[in-house]
Design a protein that fits this description.
Length: 201
Amino acid sequence: MNQTPKIAVIHPNSLCCMAMRTILSDIAPFMGATHGVEIATYNSVEDMQGDNPHATFLYFVASEVLEQNIQFFQPLARRCIVLTEGKQEGISEMFRTVDMQSPERELVKAFLMIHNAAHHSHGIAQHTKPEQAELLSPREKDVLSLIVKGYINKEIADHLNISTPTVIFHRRNISEKIGSKSVGRLTIYAVMNGIVDVREL
């Protein structure tokens, strides 16, 4: 019997769990049951162990949960990403970490890099709806690519040889089509739809 692969988020803060579920859902737009990935959130290791953890291929775990359950997570170190608040030297030597206090662009890039590595190593195909990929015009894709790389409106205008009001017009259209003004959400869209490579961010 095939099990749906699972990403587990284990954090005592329920708000953090909700935020992580949203971020990971945006990053992993898998289509169809055969390619689905379940994103499950738990407030403790005990909660997770009561919910068939065998299908879990990736763990996002709070640093305090890791420290309290180090014997459980040590054998799973290659599949764990530890959610820290600031730098934690001892943990980062053994586990991959994401500093939750990082700026939004750095956090999004870190999650996208983890996503790429995890899904290539586990052979899970990434599927994007064709209408998503063609949602933007070629010029809007050019503008979006520069937005997510950190360019401001005037720099985008100079780079593309268009006026600043035209850049603002394109930005408004892009936000309306994607449904968000958040640079994080725009970055996820751009990477997941092949408009930019995560290594360019």
